[in-house]
Amino acid sequence: MLNTNTDVLAIASKNPHVGELLSEYNRAMINSSQGNLITKFDNIRFCRWPGQTDDGKKHSENRSEGDPAWPFEGASDVRTRLIDATCNELTTLLVGAFQKAELRANGTELTDMSVSQIGTTLLRWIRDCKMPQQLYKEATLAAQYALQYGWSAFFVGWQQNISKRSQSISMEQIVDLAQQSGSQVLMELPQLIATAPEQAAEIMRTAMP
Question: N or C: which end of the chain has fewer CB within 10 A?
Fold first, then answer.
């Protein structure tokens, strides 16, 4: 059972707990055979086996435990990369389907029609204009991993940036804003600007982040 009081990885922190992360990684690798399977799948796809030589032929001197070359010395030991070629061909098909797929955001109600159209346009713009190279790279990696190891996973995150810009605002605009809001605090804003500008600035930052 997870105990958030003792597990330092249960709550995110500004500085990563490298030691705890390494311990969790080692524990996960020990308790599963995933590491051995990765090596096995790599060897199968890229045609790796004991006793291989640079000239692509079998030699008894490279065999383990004195096992002679079979069926004869110098027999062909060429790598046939059928699995690698199949993974690459299927990856091309999957990535092509991803790039040409019809993106559509559907609303849950009839009133969501206009919003769903905006969402659809945004999705298409992100895929085709904003992030085509990055999405192509990630889709290719995901397809390769799925075809070679049997599974792949995506993590979708959002990167937020805060920027500032100078903007002039007149007293008439502040009065209009106060009247439209109906807030008693904002109604007192014009007077605060003249008497307590720091307090007025704090109120404006809260009202107009």
Answer: N
pTM over 0.70? The answer is: no
**How many beta carbons lie within 10 A of that of residue 199, not counting itself?**
13
Peptide linkage before 68 cis (omega within 30 of 0): no
- Give the Cβ contact number of residue 120 at 10 Å: 15
76-85: long-range pairs with CB below 8 Å, 24+: 77/51, 77/52, 77/53, 79/46, 79/47, 79/52, 80/47, 81/45, 81/46, 81/47, 83/44, 83/45, 84/45, 84/46, 84/47
The answer to whether the CB of 69 falls within 8 A of the CB of 59 is: yes
Among candidate residues 128, 125, 146, the one with its CA nearest the CA of residue 136: 128
Which burial class, exposed, middle or buried, applies to 186 when counting CB atoms under 10 A from its CB (0-12, 13-18, 19+)? buried
> Mean pLDDT for the chain?
84
DSSP type of residue 129: I
For residue 126, what are the CA distances in angstroms to 5, 29, 70, 103, 113?
41, 37, 57, 11, 20
* pLDDT, tens digit, 9 for 90 and up, residues 81-118: 999 999 999 999 999 999 999 989 988 888 888 899 99
pLDDT at 133: 94
